[in-house]
Every structure is written in structure tokens, then in C-alpha cells.
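Here we describe the complex-level prediction in full. Unlike the single-chain runs in Section 2.1, the two entities below were treated as one system.
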Amino acid sequence: MTEAFVYDAVRTPRGKGRSSGALHEVTPMRLATTVLEAVRDRNELDTSLVDDVVLGCVAPVGEQGADIARVAVIQANYAETVAGVQINRFCASGLEACNMAAAKVLSGQAEMAIGGGVESMSRIPMGSDGGAWATDPAVAMPTYFVPQGISADLIATKYGMSRADVDSYAVESQKRAKRSWDEGRFKKSIIPVKDINGLTVLDRDEHLRPETTMQSLAALEPSFGVMGEQFGFDSVAMQRYPDVERIEHMHHAGNSSGIVDGAAAVLIGNAEGGRKAGLKPRARIRAFTSVGSEPTIMLTGPSFAAEKALKLAGMKPSDIDLYELNEAFASVVLRFMQVLNVPHDKINVNGGAIAMGHPLGATGAMILGTMVDELERSDKNTALVTLCVGAGMGIATIIERV
Amino acid sequence: MIDYSIDGDGIAAIVWNMADRPMNVMNGDSLAAFREAVYKAIQDKAVKGVIVTSAKNDFVAGADLVNLLKESLDAAKALQNSFALQKLFRDIEKAGKPFVAAINGTALGGGYEICLACHRRIAADNPKALIGLPEASIGLLPGAGGTQRLPRMIGVSKALPMILESKKVDPKAALALGMVDELVAPGELLIRAKAWLLNEGQTGHVKPWDQKGFRVPEAANTPKGAQVFTAGNGMLRAKTMGNYPNAQYIMSCVYEGMLVDIDTGLKIESRYFVACTQSKEARNMIRSLFFSIGEANKLANRPKNVPTQAYTKVGVLGAGMMGAGIAYAASSAGLNVVLLDSTQEAAEKGKAYTAGLLDKRVKAKKTSEADKEKQLGLIKATTSYDDLKGCDLVIEAVFEDRAIKAEVTKKAEAQLEPTAIFASNTSTLPITGLAEASSRPANFIGLHFFSPVDKMPLVEIIRGKQTSDETLARAMDFVKKIRKTPIVVNDSRGFYTSRVFATYVTEGLTMLAEGVAPAVIENAGKMAGMPVGPLALADEVSLELMHRVRSQTRKDLGDAYKSDGSEPVLQAMVEKLGRIGKKAGKGFYDYPADGRKKLWADLGKHFPVKAEQPDVQDVIKRLVYIQSVETARCLEEKVIIDVRDADVGSIMGWGFPPFRGGTVSNIDSVGVKPFVAECDQLAQKFGARFTPPRLLRDMADQGKSFYAA
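The structure predicted for the assembly as a whole is:
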């Protein structure tokens, strides 16, 4: 059967997702073209070998709207035969884009495709694309809609986590992210964002707070208490989970993913495509899947997705050397570790979105690239990349070194 | 019905004036007449403007509910009727000439929706008038444009609470909210209305939403609107537990309607309105909250041929929480009250309770300092039984102890005229037994008030074996006089309300003993629509008291006593663990001084939680059905006679969920036959207390229901 290989993976650094962030002056189109140009230039890629570019983007409106992927392809001066499509699976969009690119390759309908994603959260704020789930009463009320932060606190409460548990996870994420930067673990894939003069605007993740300690986190008020208590969402969640007496609010800006800007791209192709391009495969995509899970608790999908992907690959959890689960909220990772019995030293080894941020549409592709780099660096063999997803979904992709 | 006239200046007046009714209401006849007048005014070129007003004290009080449900049985027909009404109001709005609503008095529901359709709303400054859209409180929604015009006019975030919470406001508050445009002295109303029509109205008769470029500022496609609806949906689901479909429909009308033009919005509203009329929740709420309570207030079950008793002076024995509350209620109705206790200090403390409540009302500007003093002047705090002379009625509210009750009965009766009534406010002791202390048991009756008396509207009237029809009739007159709602029951242990209410709590405790997780029990109680979970309620009642009542009953009944599943729980909690309830700060919950109550962390040690938990819907079913099946037993035993009283008593007495219509309506909602079948299954699984009584089986066999459909 045809195989899908990862030939390269790049990402921009992540800028703070607000007006003081370094990437706020950069358009999302520029972020997208930055990574597409890098894939082409550093691989001396004949872009006419690429059949399609799939980019995740969660708020595809305004300057991120109208199929940003195809316009980025044009803007990056790819061959005009390269198609482009923007997709949205919320936080999993970037990985879903890679999985779709891989699916095109695996099915024999493409020799090479690029998966990736882009999100300028500072310019197009989260929620800009509207949507019915939260606001339409005929949808929200019968389906027990609650905001994600409530779900994260529900996971923590239901599965017995304390504030100290989630905070110490966050401190460790910061520590690992700093170490990774200090040791240059990301240098293979970071593409600095440059201005019109070729001068660097940003060349490293700027959201990190390596000085974070348990004490500094303890000073932060939980972010979702008001929402839960005054807007009724605790009660809504408990109507769905009546075994919970009350929701303990413990997530805050310090143990949740950061809001940032960024883009990523992953070049995927079959053996023939790689041969034509003169590239060596860096990893094989063994399995991938997306699943639906209970939407009110919303963020427990990763374990189900991981289990399904493992089954597809004919593997056991212990066959995986490294796990990478997007750090949307600390409790999401802790729950995943409980379910699959994953030790902390095998998961998110280079830190994650709590420290470095979560540019919604791009993150999945970024952390896939992180795993390709890390397998090579630490000379390990298999990795499973997964994300929790809004509205109750999970996604997982298993890769192995070639 | 509708008077129509045109004056010399070309101003037409459409005047609501329903001769055969105390208030104007919208029904088929009145609407037909109103429609005719409206189109006459629109078509008559000589008419320059139109005043819509009323010849009665009130404007229009709303729709006639008697016909509403009958007429809406067929959804397709109901929808056509609704469209036709929307068109009439829309034609007023687009008449091409100004309409003004001259709101002389109360304008509610459909009455206020007429005002909303007019181009201007001028209200008489009449502080007694009420303005609002209260349809939500009976399971409906404002279906004549209210959900569309009000938010367009005053904004989504102001309109939603008005509609969802069925708020009624006086004209001043209505002006502040933007629900009316101006306020004038009552005598000026028509003059000002006419002046507006002839001047501003000549150019001001196009609604903002009929002008180009109109946008609802808080529609869901704006950032503010998205927040309003997101939070609103959460708050509403938290409050309704998803039990009130009309609440969601109201939100949906506003959400969906604000995203489209008004004509489309009105169609959306009509469809949701018809959905409300088809719901059993609306039928239950209209039946019980509107008709049955109304009939109880009108004393439908009062024995005939007994002259109405006028009250001037009543006595209250015992100035504790209940006695003080009864004194407040009676003095609020203008009665002289002798408030008696064993020490002057205790009696004065009881009177101070009324002073405290009145102070709050003065602060809230609901009464004046002078009226407060006047009312306090009606209450005489005393220790002397001599002061009871001349009382038409004496109510004892002393400690629940037969001997003490007997003693005060004798002492009081010694001072009373032979015709006077003696009433006991006992909630647990059978009336017939207490009447043994009375020298005229025919005049002895139970008046069971609920705590706190000033807030709780229900009085359960208990007939002892020897209580006369006359005494019952006169006692009902008293309840009406103090503006409470009476239900009538026959003497039996726990009467009706305490007996059925107790089954809810007992079932909760029984589940705890079975190993159901306490959080599930509590959440299920709230999700069932009960105000408080059974364990929290038990804490409030006091576990010690519940334990004592059971011990007393066991003593009283001997071999006939049937133990229930809550007993081991109560015994352990009270005797072994010393957790006696909320007052002691520890029961099923802990009550930290500086925080919310929390289920006692060690509960699981003493009542182990089973690994396999029931589905919450099954827990809800048990908690609700046990109350209905016990009510059916009360009906069979003739503890309660009138099913309407049973429904009203359950809703007003202990907060049985209104959307279920009461404990009896709930059986009809499920269907008698399926209810019996489900109860049989529950009995098999959980015990004979669920076994349906003969009465229900017979009804099921005969295909009967308690109420006509």
C-alpha cells in the first residue's frame, strides 16, 4: 500500500496574541506565506509537485476568510496548479489539515500535499466567526452547552484533580519549554517572521514565562468562576454530570493555553513524490483519526482518539515513545495521562501551549513538527500527537521514524 | 364591546369596553370587534389619527385563557389564528397614520402588545397600573408581537428579563425602561394623546424597524449580542433545568427574530407560540396556576348557605415564628390582632416581627411610615387571656405538645363567645384529637400555615371529625380575608401537605441507604423541578425532628406502624453520628460559616456509594412519582377531596414543580395507565410504597383521567 511520509515541517515562532505582541503587525496572510515559502525554499521544492495545500484556521473571517489557503498559495508564488483549501476542526485544525493531506497521499490521489494552519488571534479574535452552539437557544439549551473553561474545570473536579495538581503541571510546562529553547530543540523548524526589508520581526516564542512558580500561580484567580456561577454554566454542566456536587474552578491564564499568533506547514508525500523532489523522508504517518466525544465535558476526546488510532496502527499505548497532547488546559493532559497510564516524562517533553501558546488553527501542525524533530533529536521511534477539540472531539496521529 | 367614534378634528377613538366582564380581555369576540374598528379607522380618509384606550379602570388585561387552550388544540388552525392576529397588529403599525395607545390602567400580555403595535404609548400616571408581558409564568410566550417589538424597542438585554421573568411594572418604571414613551396625569391622558396625533404623530408613524438601515443593536450577530445570548442561555438552563419549554422558546423568538426583519420575526414568534399552546407544561400551568388557584381563592369548595363571616378581631396564641407571622398576615388585612404569649417579652418580640417586615416595606417604598404605625396599632401584645374577649377567631400556634395545646384551648375558650372559632396551626397532630380539649368541637378546626407566613400563600384547612360546615365556611372566609389561598383537607396523620411532602424527603434518604451517590440524589431533586434536594431539605427540617416524629408515630401506632427506608439513615445520623441538621451546622451537609454548604465528606463512609449508579432520569422519576402516588392514596382515603386542591397545595405548599401542574396533574401528564404500569415496576424494584392504590387502577382500567383533556 502507498505510504505517507513527512518530508519537512516548519513553523513561525508564536507571538503574543494581543496588540503588544510582536506579530500583531503581521497579517495572517503573511504568516501563512512565510511557512509556505520556507517549505519551498529550504527544500528547493518544485511546487508543481504539490497537489494541494490544506490549512487549518478556526476564525476564517475577515483577512483570514475566503479560503486563505488558496490565496496564500498564490501569494507565495507557488505553481498555479497547486490548489488550496481552508478547513476548520477547531483546535485540531492544523493536525486535521496534515491528516487530510496524508489521506490524499495515502489514497493515491496526490503525490505531495502540504498540511498546516494559521491563526492571528491578535488580529481576528477567537469567536469572530460566530456560530450557533453557544448563542442559539434552540441549540445551546438542549445540548447542555458550556464554555470550554467550565469543561476543563469539570474534568478536574470529576477526576479528582486539585489546584496544586494543575498548577504544578503548568510550572513543569514552562520549565520544559525554556529548556527546549535554551538547548535549541526547536531550531530545525523555526522560521523567523521577517518584515518587508528582510529584517526579523520575531524569531522565538514570546509567550513563555520561565519565572513561573507555584507561588506566582497561586496568586491567580480562577478564570471561569463567574461564568460558572453567575451565568449558570456550572449548573448546566452538573445537569449533564449529576454525580458532581459542585464544580471546583481551578483553571486560569497560568495553567491554560496562551493566546498567540502563528503559522505552520508540513510537507507530506508518498515515496515517489519524495524521489521526484529529491527529499529524504523524516517520518512515516502510521495512523490518524478523529472522534466525537461527549460535548459538555468536551475535552476528553484525546484518549478516545488515541485509543482508536493505536488500534488502527495495531499498537498499544506502551508502544509509543513520545506523546504530544496540546496543553489547552492542564486538566486535559492530566486526564489523558490517567486514562492511558502515560508517565509525565513521556508526554509533552518539550513543554506545550501553556508556556508557548496555542494559535488555534496552526497548533496541530506545529506539534506534529515538534514530534518529528524530537524523535530525531532523542533518537526515539514512535510518537502520538493528539489534541482536544471544541464541541467534544478528539484527534490523533501516530508517526514513526523512517 | 369596542366603542368607536370620530371627533371633529378627525381623531378616531377605539375604546375597549367589555360590558359583561370586570376587565377587558382579548378573545374571539372582542378581537373581532377591535379588528373591525381598526380597519374602519385605517380606511376612513377623514381619520387623521387613532386613539386606542379603554373605558374601564384597566386598559386590557390580556388574553382570555378559557378559550385559548380550546381554540389551540389544532396546531395548524392555531397557527392561522396567530398569523391573523399578527397581521392585524402589523396593519396598525403600517397604517400610514398614527395610532397612540392611551394606557389608562393595567395593560398586560396581549393588552400591552396592542400598545406595542401602536406608534406611541402614553400612560396615565396611575401607580396602581401594571404593565408587562407575564405570559411566561403560565407556560406561554407573548404571541402577538411581544417578543419581537419589545427587544427592538428597548434592547435585547432589557427585554429578555421582562419577558422571561414575567415582570409587571408600574407606569413610572415602564417609562424608565422605555416600555412607554411618556407619562401624563390621568385627566390629561386623552388630551395629550390627541395632541400627539395631530402634531408629532403626523410624521412620526413609521416604526424604527420599518425605516431603512435599522439594526437591532444586541442581535446575536453583534459581539454584545453574542455575549447576551450565550450567558442568557446558560442562566436560563440553570434556572429552568430545561423543564420549561416556553422559556427556551422565548429566548429563541428573540434570538432568531432579531436576525431577520420584523415580518419574518413575527412568523417565527407565531410558530413558537403555537408550540407552547401544544405543550403539556402550558396546559398544566394554566390549569393549576391560573384556574385552580383562582377557584380556590374564590372559595369554590366553601359550604353553601353559610352567611359570609366578617372579621374584626382575632387572637393568636404563641408569638413564636408562626404566631408572629400569622399576626403580620392578619394585621396586614386590617384585622385587630391579640398576640398572646406566656411572657410580655415574648409577645412583644412577636409583634416586633411585624415591625421588622414593615420597616423593610417602608424602605422599599411599598408602604408609608404612617401606614406602618397604623398596622402596628392593630396588634396588641399581651399575656392576658382576658384580652381575647370579642375575638371572632383564635388561632393557637404554641409548641407541638398535646398537653400545652389543650391548656391554651381551655383558657382561650373561657373568654370567647360560644360562636367563636378555635383553630390550631398544628402541622403534625391530628385535629380530632386536639378538639377533645375543646368545649365546642364543632367550632374547632385546623389552620395550617406555612413558614414563613408572610411569604407562603397557602393555608391548609383541616376538618376534624366534628368540625361543622359552618365553621369550615367561616374559616375559609378568614383565609380569604387575609389574602391567602385555602385548600380543604380531612383529618389524618400529616394531613395532606406534610404527608406527601415527607415522601419526597424519605425517598431521598432511602436512596442514600441504597447507595445512590448523594450528589446524584440532590441534583436529581433539583432537576425534577423541586426547589431543594431531599437531603438539604431534610437538614432544613432537622434530622432530629424527623427522627422524633417517627419514634412518636411508632409509639402511637404500635403494630400498625410501617417502617420506611429512611429510618436507618436517620438513626445513624442522629443517634450515632450526632449530625442533626442545619441548625446544628451539620447534617448531610456541612455548613461552614464563611461559605456555601457542602455535602459531608464522610457521608460515603457511613452510606457507601454503589459502583453502579442509576440513571439520573430514574432517580428523578422516583422522587416525583412517590409524591403523586401518595397523593392518589390521599384522594382514595378522602384525606383530600378536590383534585384541584391537591394540585394547588402541592405547588404552593412545598414547591412541587409548576410545569408538572401539581401532584395530580402530573399523573394525567404521564397518563394514568402508564403511570400505574410504571408504579408497579417501581414497587417491584423499590418497595410497596409505589404500589398504586385501587383508585388509580380503576381509573386506568376505565381509561379515565383526573381532568378533562
